Amino acid sequence: MNVFILILYTYGLFSASHGSIVIDLDKDSPSGKKVVELEPLNTRLEAQNLYEYLDPSVDPCDNFYLFSCGKWIRTQKKIYGDNDNSSIRDQHTNFNKFRDGKYDKISEVARVLQKRRKECLKTIELDKNECLQVIDDFATYAISTLFVTQNRKKSEKRYDFVFIEDMIKRIREEFRLLIDEKKHIFDEETRNNFLFKLGRIEYKKDFGESDIFNIEIMNDCYAKKGIHYFFPLSDLVNEIKHDKSLSDKNKDDLKSCRGKIFQVNSVMSEYVYRNAWYNIYDNYFSINSDAFNKPSFSIRFPNSLNYGFLGFKIAHEIMHAFDSNNYNRTLEGNNKNKFNVTQKSVKHFEEKSKCFIEQYGMQIESITDKYINGSLVLNESIADNGGLKLAYKAYMKWLQSNGGKDIEVPGFEKFTNEQLFFIGAGRSNCQHTGRYTTENQINSDTHPPGEIRTNVALSNYKPFSAAFNCPINSNMNPEDKCELWKI
Is position 100 within any domain? Predict the structure, then answer.
């Protein structure tokens, strides 16, 4: 079935009240056309979303991360405090809001657990924080299931996937063109192998191990658990704690109800929180349903923000197929360990990679005053630096095809389309973390802390410096830049 989109309004030019989209589900069938009416457009809401993040008091050429995330970070400090163990990431906020809502009409399990959770706030018999933690952990599977399924329904209703697939197609095409241009780094044999692999990277919309996001199975699991939900609160908490003590993450996988309920945190970061990931073994990438929510994506956002945030993340994941661990293998079928890059190309790749190792290794994290391990974060650095460029090129091609027009956001008219793209990218790594959490990230996480991750990738890219007129050798426009997938 052929799917394509005809947009009756042009971004930035359609009526301020509402627009409509024609989706032709089968180009060979005239009766396949369907008109989808959009909800009334309120660009003030989109402006408010930007106001929640940007700190205009910060010079974007001095610290673009704080410019893009500063106000959001201050808000998190007011809400959650500023202690050594704090770990608030922007990717978690939609789920946290959803978790605190009402689900009476969606799930009886969620309704009951939400009611018992409120009792924790009033208890004098139990430690409030421990009570909340026990109930929240126990309810995570239920809330995750509801969160993902509700998001999926909204996305299907809004035809988000059609927009996303068009974005992916454009990003993939930019990468194809880029590979063809890299004659000075990769020889013809290597480039042909890269193109072969790129052409077989699959975007998977359907994911979730062991039906973990099936509401009926979720309700059945909680019913079979044998937990007495209407026992006195102290008895309920003790019963949950006892049942959890019997669960072993090495034995309880997501095929069992006990595994789904007590080991669900193992898949939260992949399937629930706003995220995307590349599967190195089967050469595909997926995007979580929450990624189709603000601030990463909205069909009512300017495409500059959509490409800057979600487009950047998509391009980042595609780029992982060609990072320092994966660029020299097919990672497909029976040839998963077959090297398909010539030694000449390997040498050039490694020479270019050294620049990133040294550059990131010179970065000092502001909370801990610790240096970043450039080798540890190399793969993510390559994906960030290359993905940013692919998303930018794809957006600029879209903008050109749309007559240079994009949606204007009230209060932000002074920003160009290019600047809004980079603001979208800057918002994609906002986090509020304490010293202890940040130290752990530096020591073991392959992702650099958000501030370094954002600032270094953007400062390496000349179109960013040009967009904000950053003086040469300012923090965000160093004379010496690292480039592997130079565009």
Answer: yes
Verify that 276 and 300 share a domain, yes or no.
no
Which residue range forms the structural domain that includes residue 171? 48-84+160-201+283-486
CB atoms within 10 A of CB 236: 21
For residue 471, whether the previous peptide bond is cis, meaning omega lies within 30 degrees of 0, is no
pTM: 0.86
Are residues 406 and 428 both part of a single domain?
Answer: yes
pLDDT 10s digits, 433-481: 999 999 999 999 999 999 999 999 999 999 999 999 999 999 999 999 9
The pLDDT tens digits for 369-383 are 999 999 999 999 999
Whether 35 is covered by a domain: the verdict is no
The predicted structure's pLDDT at residue 335: 61
